[in-house]
Structure of Methylthioribulose-1-phosphate dehydratase:
Amino acid sequence: MTSAPSSEAFAAAAAGVIAMARYAGDRHWVPATSGNFSVRIDERFAAVTATGADKANLTEADVIAAEISGPKHPRASAEAPLHLVRYASDPSIGAIAHIHTLPATLLSRRHAAKGALRLDGWELLKAFTGIKTHETALDIPIVPNDQDTDRLAALIEERLGASGPVPGYLIAGHGLYVWGASAKDAIRHMEAFDFLLTAELHEENAR
Ligand SMILES: CSCCC(=O)C(=O)COP(=O)(O)O
Ligand SMILES: [Zn+2]
């Protein structure tokens, strides 16, 4: 028997979702209603954005309590399976953000055939939880896009299981998924990815 989260627990998680979405919206990272955001409420539920909502101007009415291992909520993001499987796989994850930044989308296509994008030697890698030195090489997985998001979620978990620990992944021609222990950590990780992928794109284009 699954009991719904309390209204206080839902409101606290929804506030984190709105903070991430507005942060991304203010930076034009979620154009044309793209992107989706979630915060874990407890071991059974996560607060997830509604499909089609304007993430840049999100309100609590656009946030849904979705069961992590339950049936699909009819109003939840089309990409909710990609969030929910992450919570089920990794108990340390407290918040997840999906954004459509230009550098992430461009690099995800350019490097799709290799299946990963290496981020190597940048000082800002230390913005990711657990990384202590710029002398780090992170291979960010890239998976092919798929409109079947249950199948896509399964493929992503398989790829993440075979890779070292990473704070996110790319979907080819689509965008970036990133997570953290809290909404605050996920925001820092979004910002770090945006800087690192922009730097990578500039460096590659100058070669
Ligand atoms: C108009 S963006 C296409 C769908 C997408 O990639 C996205 O991130 C938003 O989907 P949602 O169902 O979460 O609104
Ligand atoms: Zn998307």
Summary: The helical segments are 7-26, 80-89, 102-110, 149-162, 183-206. The radius of gyration is 16 Å.
